[in-house]
C-alpha cells in the first residue's frame, strides 16, 4: 500500500501515478484503457474484463439440474444451458420449464431435442436497503395473516399462506441475485453502503430465507386443535422478528435485552410438538438477525462524503 499525491492538470482534472509493479502484473502499457468508477468508500481503478454470463449443465439427475439452475440464477448468470447426451424426456422438460415459476425473469429461450436454454430477463437495482425493506415487509405481512389463521384455523387459509410463501421465495432469490451482481459488477451496480454492510445484508437475507423455510414447515404441521394454543407463542415470535429486523435497519441496539428475553421465553414455554419446535427455530433466526444488527453497528472507519 502506498499513498500517492494528487496532481492537478490543465482543464481542472486531477491525476495520480500508478504503481509500475501493478501495471506490469496486469499486462498493461501506456495505451491501455482502465475503468475508473466511484464506490462507497472511494474510487476504483481496474482493467476492463469480460463477464462470463453463461453456464452449461450436463443433464444427469433432474433434481441436481433444478438446484443448479436456481443457484446460477441467484449468483448472477444470465444464460443457462441444460444439455443431455440423448433426447430429453417430455416429463423432464416439463419439470425444467416449471422453474420459470420459481424465479423472476427466468425464461426458456430455446429448446432442441437434447437441450433447453434459459435466459434471465430481470433488472436489479442499486438500492439494497430498499429491497431488504420490501422483502421483510412482505414477511411481516404474512406473519400477521398466520396469526389470523391460528385464531380462526382453516385449511383454505393455510393453503393460501403456503402459496404466498412459495411466491416469496422468488423475492428471496431476486435479492440474492441483486447482491451477487452488485458485488461482482460494482462498476454497474453501486450499492453505496459501507462495504462490510453488503456482507451483513447477504447474511441477513440468508437467515430470513431459513426463517421462511421453517415457517413453511410450521404451517404444514400445525393442526386445528393445536392452532389456538400456539397463538400466544406466535405473538412473541412475531414481535421478535419485527424488533430484530428494525434493529438491523436502524442500528438502534436498545431492544437487544428484550429480544434475548423473548427468545428465552419461547424456548421455555413453546410446546415440544413439531409446530412448537419450528417456532423455536424461527426464533433462533431472529436472534441471528439481532447479531447481524450488532455487527452492522460497528465500523472501524466513519467514511463521509464532504
UniProtKB/TrEMBL annotation:
Pfam family, one: MazE_antitoxin
SMART domains: SpoVT_AbrB (SM00966)
An example Gene Ontology molecular-function term: DNA binding
InterPro entries, per the entry: SpoVT-AbrB_dom
Domain SpoVT-AbrB: 8-53
Protein's name in the database: Phosphate uptake regulator
Native source organism of the sequence: Metallosphaera yellowstonensis MK1
Amino acid at each position: 500500500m502506498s499513498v500517492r499525491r494528487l496532481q492537478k492538470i490543465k482543464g481542472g482534472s486531477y491525476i495520480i501515478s500508478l504503481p509500475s509493479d501493478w501495471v506490469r502484473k496486469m499486462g498493461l502499457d501506456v495505451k491501455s484503457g482502465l475503468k475508473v468508477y466511484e464506490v462507497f468508500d472511494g474510487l476504483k481503478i481496474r482493467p476492463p474484463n469480460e463477464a462470463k454470463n453463461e453456464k452449461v449443465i450436463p443433464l444427469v439427475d433432474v433434481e441436481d439440474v433444478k438446484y443448479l439452475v436456481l443457484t446460477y440464477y441467484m449468483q448472477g448468470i444470465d444464460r443457462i444451458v441444460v444439455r443431455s447426451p440423448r433426447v430429453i424426456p417430455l416429463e423432464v422438460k416439463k419439470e425444467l420449464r416449471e422453474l420459470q415459476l420459481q424465479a423472476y425473469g427466468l425464461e426458456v429461450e430455446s429448446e432442441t431435442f437434447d437441450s433447453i436454454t434459459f435466459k434471465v430477463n430481470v433488472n436489479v437495482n442499486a438500492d439494497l436497503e430498499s429491497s431488504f425493506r420490501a422483502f421483510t415487509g412482505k414477511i411481516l405481512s404474512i406473519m400477521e395473516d398466520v396469526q389470523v389463521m391460528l385464531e380462526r384455523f382453516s385449511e383454505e387459509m393455510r393453503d393460501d399462506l403456503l402459496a404466498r410463501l412459495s411466491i416469496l421465495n422468488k423475492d428471496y432469490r431476486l435479492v440474492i441475485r441483486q447482491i451477487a451482481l452488485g458485488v461482482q459488477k460494482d462498476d454497474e451496480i453501486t450499492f453505496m453502503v459501507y462495504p462490510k454492510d453488503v456482507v451483513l445484508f447477504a447474511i441477513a437475507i440468508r437467515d430470513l430465507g431459513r426463517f421462511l423455510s421453517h415457517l413453511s414447515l410450521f404451517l404444514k404441521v400445525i393442526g386445528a386443535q393445536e392452532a389456538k394454543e400456539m397463538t400466544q407463542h406466535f405473538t412473541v415470535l412475531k414481535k421478535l422478528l419485527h424488533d430484530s429486523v428494525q434493529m438491523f435497519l436502524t442500528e438502534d441496539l436498545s431492544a437487544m435485552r428484550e429480544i434475548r428475553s423473548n427468545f428465552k421465553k419461547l424456548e421455555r414455554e413453546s410446546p415440544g410438538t413439531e409446530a412448537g419446535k419450528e417456532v423455536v427455530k424461527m426464533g433462533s433466526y431472529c436472534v441471528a438477525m439481532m447479531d447481524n444488527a450488532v455487527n452492522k453497528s460497528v465500523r472501524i472507519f466513519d467514511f463521509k462524503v464532504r
